[in-house]
Amino acid sequence: MTGIVTDVDEVKGFNAYGIITVRILKTNITEYDPRDTMEFYYCIIRDSIAEIYDHAFRNMIGDTINIDTKKELQSWGSIWNESNAGSIRINNNKSYYDYIRKNTRFKFFKRSV
């Protein structure tokens, strides 16, 4: 996936993890919502928008972000640091996901029984 960071919610108290909103430019997946099958997840994709749950800094807004889930890598170009790269990591703090559920732009989803 390649996209432009449009918003960042820096969440206090979760080791710099937050919510990164991305306008998708290119992707091979048009919709992805693992909330009904996974307790902890990396992102949600819907309607050319992605929310990424990872380290998040306000300075990322306007950056281009590239994510390769098969290689578990991400990188982004930045006005505050020419480029950054790192592994995809999933935070397994339940309180962080409580925050995400309350603050996600994707409030409604089908939960399996």
Summarize the structure.
The protein has 113 residues and is mostly beta strands.
Question: What does this 3D model show about the protein?
Answer:
- The structure is a single chain.
- This protein has 113 residues and is mostly beta strands.
- The protein has one domain.
- It has one helix and seven strands, in the order E-E-E-E-E-E-E-H.
- Strands 3-4-2-1-5-6-7 form a seven-stranded antiparallel sheet, with no helix packed on it.
- A hairpin with a 4-residue loop joins strand 5 and strand 6.
- The longest helix has 10 residues.
- The chain starts with a strand and ends in a 10-residue tail after the last helix.
- The model has no long low-confidence stretch (mean pLDDT 86).
List keywords for this structure.
single chain; 113 residues; mainly beta; seven-stranded antiparallel beta sheet; 7 strands; globular
Structural class: mainly beta
| Total individual domains | 1
The geometry reads as globular
Number of helical elements: 1
How much is the radius of gyration in Å? 13 Å
What is the element string, with H for helices and E for strands? EEEEEEEH
Largest sheet: 7 strands, antiparallel
Strand content: 35-45%
Adjacency order of strands in the biggest sheet: 3-4-2-1-5-6-7
Number of strands: 7
Mean of residue pLDDT values = 86
Helix content estimate: under 10%
Low-confidence stretches: none
End-to-end distance, in Å? 31 Å
Topology summary:
Elements: E1 2-10, E2 17-26, E3 43-46, E4 49-55, E5 64-68, E6 73-77, E7 83-87, H1 94-103
Antiparallel strand pairs: 1-2, 1-5, 2-4, 3-4, 5-6, 6-7
